[in-house]
Design goal:
Layout: H1 3-7, H2 27-42, H3 49-52, H4 54-66, E1 73-75, H5 79-89, E2 92-96, H6 103-115, E3 118-122, H7 132-138, E4 143-149, H8 161-168, E5 172-176, E6 193-197, E7 209-213, H9 215-220, H10 257-273, H11 275-295, E8 312-315, H12 322-331, E9 337-339, E10 342-346, H13 353-370
């Protein structure tokens, strides 16, 4: 598959620049959803077995992209569920930034409140950027794990997993990967726990996700929320067996096979085109958006260094102009996220000329209103 074939699967209307919130379904994900929905609707004799195959299919697809063996991958319904598994299963201190997306700090605090087996240690950062140097300077001997977002959702900063691994040694490295999975060719093998959902950059819709675990993570984490499908047997009656030995232990119940099918289809497509190819297109489109913002002297708060960014461009006008910029984008049909005094544009592998012109029009209107 070529990158142009991949790009042809984007069906959203011009003006959509909000993949960091949710990515509209890719063509293959939508088609897979429809196909399996029709199978479930008709329930023809012998057709239901296809649903049972989707868990293995999804884990195989995730294995191809991450390099993690399929038996160390488990499907989860969303990123937060996987992070809760990791935090509640941890014993010791976890070092993380309080400025991460709420899923991470809340999971750490809830685990501490409920079990008292994990203690969050709050990392001081450089305006939200988690760097190896900051971790090194604040790493105490009692820290058992470090948790970080691959891409910070507020700053767009792409963290240095290699540098972090060098600094933390054999401590567990837990990665919330959702803001980069599918568009960043990250060294996943350096992380002990990688959790992502499929509804953003993978464009696979809600209810999709995977959690990968290293051998070290399987050895050190406790599968606290291990349900009846998290044992070695498909069904257990009249007994309560221990959790399975591998990642299967982190299953709570039967997953949604239609969600698994559309996520698997999206990941298979990504593997076919290659994440580096997608990343290259994203990088070029991000640069184009930054250049357009520069043309209109709109401050860009996110990094200009391709090594420190993925698909997020953060605009930070003067506080009194944030609402004006947000309204200008809305009035020109540009979908973006306004949050905490900034405007976030999320750029994927497709950036149509129509979208560029809509963005240009919004910037012209903003400049006119801001200088009036």
């Amino acid at each position: 598959m070529t990158i142009d074939d991949y790009a042809a699967g984007f069906g959203e209307e011009p003006g959509y620049l909000d993949y960091g919130r949710v990515g509209p379904l890719s063509r293959v994900a939508a088609e897979e959803t429809l196909a399996f929905t029709q199978v479930l609707e008709r329930a023809r004799h012998g057709s239901m077995e296809a649903f049972e195959e989707q868990d293995g299919r999804l884990r195989a697809a995730a294995s191809d992209l991450t390099g993690t063996p399929a038996d160390r991958i488990v499907a989860v319904p969303n990123t937060t569920t996987g992070l809760m598994h990791a935090m509640f299963g941890l014993t010791g201190t976890v070092l993380l930034s309080p400025g991460e997306f709420p899923s991470l700090p809340i999971a750490a605090v809830r685990a501490n409140e409920a079990l008292h087996s994990v203690q969050p240690a709050w990392l001081e950062t450089d305006h939200g950027k988690v760097t190896p140097g900051q971790i090194r300077d604040q790493l105490e001997a009692n820290v058992a794990a470090v948790a970080v977002s691959l891409v910070d959702p507020r700053t767009g900063y792409l963290c240095d997993l290699e540098g972090i691994r060098q600094v933390i040694g054999d401590r567990l490295l837990i990665v919330d990967a959702i803001q980069g999975f599918g568009i960043v060719d990250a060294p996943w093998e350096l992380a002990d726990v990688v959790v992502t959902g499929g509804q953003k950059w993978c464009r696979a819709g809600w209810g999709t996700g995977v959690m990968t675990l290293s051998e070290r993570a399987l050895d050190r984490l406790t599968p606290v929320f291990s349900g009846y499908t998290g044992t070695e047997e498909d069904e257990v009656w009249d007994e309560v067996p221990p959790p399975a030995a591998g990642a299967r232990a982190y299953r709570v119940s039967n997953p949604d096979p239609i969600a698994q099918a559309r996520f698997a289809a999206a990941l298979e497509e990504l593997a076919g085109v290659g994440v580096p190819e997608v990343n290259s297109r994203v990088a070029g489109n991000v640069s184009r958006v930054i250049e357009l913002a520069d043309e209109f002297a709109i401050p860009v708060a996110s990094s200009r260094d391709e090594r420190e960014r993925a698909g997020i461009v953060v605009l930070e006008p003067e506080p009194e102009h944030v609402t004006v910029l947000s309204a200008s984008l809305h009035n020109h049909g540009v979908t973006a996220t306004t949050r905490l005094g900034t405007v976030r544009l999320s750029v994927h592998a497709v950036l149509s000329e129509d979208t560029v012109e809509m963005l240009r029009g919004a910037f012209v209107s903003f400049n006119t209103a801001a200088t009036y």
